[in-house]
Amino acid sequence: FTDDLLGSVDVVVTMGCGDTCPFIPGKRYVDWPLDDPKGRPIEEVRRIRDEIKSRVEELISQL
């Protein structure tokens, strides 16, 4: 991502990065505290993927 891209969005979704995430004043931020899939068994990776999909669909329905 770039600062230009962040400046053009309506909602910034972060995934548990806390204070290390970029911050653009005036933007709506949503944090999804998700497990890191790195090194996890495929079943857990699929669960995380499905959770992300569900959250994206919910966010789209709100926009």
Describe, in plain words, how this protein is organized in 3D.
The protein is an alpha+beta fold. The protein has one domain (3-62): Rossmann fold, CATH 3.40.50.2300. The mean pLDDT is 88. It contains 2 helices and 2 strands, in the order H-E-E-H. It has a two-stranded parallel sheet. The protein has helices at residues 3-8, 42-62; strands spanning 11-14, 28-31.
- The CATH architecture can be given as 3-Layer(aba) Sandwich
The chain-level structural class is alpha+beta
Low-confidence stretches: none
- What CATH first level would be assigned? Alpha Beta
Please, what is the CATH homologous superfamily?
Answer: Response regulator
Mean pLDDT: 88
How many helices? The count is: 2
Q: How many E-type strands?
A: 2
Query: How much strand?
Result: 5-15%
Tell me the CATH topology.
Rossmann fold
**What number of domains?**
1
Largest sheet: 2 strands, parallel
Cα(first) to Cα(last) distance is: 21 Å
Which series of helices and strands comes N to C?
Answer: HEEH
Q: How big is the Rg?
A: 13 Å
Task: Give the secondary structure arrangement, pairings included.
Layout: H1 3-8, E1 11-14, E2 28-31, H2 42-62
Task: Write out key terms for the chains shown.
63 residues; alpha+beta; Rossmann fold
Give a brief outline of the structure.
By secondary structure, the chain is of the alpha+beta class. It has 2 helices and 2 strands.
